[in-house]
Amino acid sequence: MRRTALIILFPLSLAQLKAQAPDLGNSCSANDPAFIQRMYRDDPAGSARMAIAKDALDARTAGFVNDRGGGDGFVIPVVFHVIHAHGPENISDAQIIDAIRVMNEDFNRENPDWIDVQPEFLDLVADVGITFRLAQLDPNGNCTNGITRTVSDLTYEGDFEMTQLIQWPRNRYLNIWVGQAANGAAGYTNYPWVLDGSPNSDGIVVQASYVGSIGTSNPGRSHVLSHEVGHWLNLKHCWGNSNDPGLEENCGMDDDVQDTPLTIGWTSCALRGASCGSALDNIENYMEYAGCRKMFTIGQSDRMIAALTSPVAQREELWQQENLELTGVSGDPALCSARFVSDRRQVCVGQTITFSDASFNNVTERTWTFPGGEPASSSEASVSVTYAIPGNYAVSLNVSDGISNLTTSDPIAVEVLPLSGEDLPMTEGFESGNSLEGTQWTVVDPFEDGGFAVVSGPASSGTRSIRLANNEGLAGRIDELISGTYDLSGMTDVELSFRYAFARREPTNDDRLRIFVSNDCGTTWSLRKQLFAGSFLATAPDHLAPFVPEPDEWVGTQVANIGEASWVTGFRFKFEFESDGGNDLYLDDINLRGGSVGLDDHDASRAALRIVPNPASQAAQVIVPMEHPGSVRIEILDLLGHAAIEPWSVRLAAGDHRVDLPISGSAAGAYLVKVTTPTGSRTARLLVLERQ
Q1: Residue 401, domain CATH
Q2: Cβ contacts of residue 58 below 8 Å, gap of 6+?
Q3: 683's torsion region: left (phi>0), alpha (psi -120 to 50) or beta?
Q4: Does 259 reside within a domain?
Q5: Which residue is catalytic, options 89, 110, 228, 578?
Q6: Among 220, 343, 609, 640, which is most buried by a count of CB atoms within 10 Å?
Q7: Could you report the per-residue pLDDT of 99-148, keeping only the tens digit for each?
Q8: Is residue 550 annotated as a catalytic residue, yes or no?
Q9: Strand locations in 32-73, DSSP E?
Q10: Is the N-terminal amide bond of 613 cis, ω within 30° of 0?
Q11: Which segments of 543-654 are extended strands (E)?
């Protein structure tokens, strides 16, 4: 069996529907009352402590004189916690590094467009003097690149529970959690005085599509983190303490910053807009919602530095030299980990796999080794490699920062499949062993919770089948079972058939089974069939307990729309199951066949079964090839897999045998003839014509 964590999703899957978060503009929820209520609902004294912290910070801010900042500056260690479910929210290291770049430009007046602010505000553009650096050491002193990755469905919530999956001490790191959602906003955090008594709530949550300017984000969304850091350092929105810009009542609020005009708040870039009696609003401010943000004012800078140098919420501890050394950001980065990633682990002969150096930190030299690959070695950060011979191949990488050297290797980094696959027919009843180890099948189990596996007992035929354990906690997860390669060149009438059993837990479950085909050895996939829990997928009544199918709760189906574009030497197919909290799924008796099915001169070496004549009206026979003597079970089914005629068994010797099919009393239409021998099951279609 082959296992891989790679996954290719088909458009409009349940997971992707969840992932299609609406465009939230640049909204945040920094002042959400529910946030505070949640923090202190079990702490009656919490509100009083929060008020004391606010008074202390207000007093410090009112009398604060900023004698640092600008060129002297402050350094804040940062850790990004990427919470993902193997979707687009699992953003790249490069996107996070880009986000740090944007934040540093914004807080040090290095963004190239600051000079373009409206002339009235040009003299107020602040160099805040805060530098953000990805942590180089974790809380235990171990090497890190300042990025953690945690697999969880809570990414779709982006709430407090998500942040509790992982958190580093707030007095040493600025925690930033990245999720597919951010609790209904583009991002959120709160003021230091709100967070002072709740360290486990301290940090910033941001939607993955608002991180940096590349990848899932874009330049227009790239300043959301700077906006949220402003809140985290005690800045209000320019219109005051609310999340609702554009309201006339905002003129009665203030952001407590002298050089930002009173404003109703803006979501559009009406650069000469004015409100609340102001001559001109500071629409290009990072604390607005407009998409043309370019600046903090000097007054905002002073307010943030006052918070950063205050003991409230332990902000003053972050930038101390001792902490910079503990987090590894006080000097130049040092090499501490060698690692690499690839865009996939399985290819066919002649296909390309791309390896990328993911070592950290400060790699200046590298040497790749690709035994059996072309090229066989490289010094590039990213390398595309091809392999000419099927097999498993190792990859190694040596990196250096000019002082130290580290090496990493993977003995089975690549599995290369033959581009010219096995001949048809293919039959699979899973009777040959207790697992898929050593078989042609590849199991994609991204959540590493078992995936598709062989089980004994429940089976459509024989004593074994494939089960995907699908409990209530797996909603939104996708698992795959992928075939090996098959040679369909020269085929006609290619058909894939299989039998399955499934039950829901609740009537609302919408689990889905999809069948894909690939004509390029699995590089790309095309959907050919989809079964929904609410219609054809469920073969039994709803079960709250783990589902174990009875013999009459198996259904057969076919995938007959495998067109000429798929009749290639490197054909593959796969089953993809997307959970919606239903019950277990079972698969059995998978058959792939091709040729001119039903003709007397059909190529027996490629056919699964032959039925003659076909179509038929009064009588027909199925030709059963037997490698060894044994018992044979014959079933005639309708297209839904239900028995059209009572099944029967015969015992046959080795060789080819013609077995009469009792169709004289059958209604006209299409049927499936399933023959189960000791070596497996095969299915063929039979068309019964109207009798004259």
Answers
A1: 2.60.40.10
A2: none
A3: beta
A4: yes
A5: 228
A6: 609
A7: 999 999 999 999 999 999 999 999 999 999 999 999 999 999 999 999 99
A8: no
A9: none
A10: yes
A11: 555-559, 572-578, 585-593, 610-612, 620-626, 630-637, 643-652
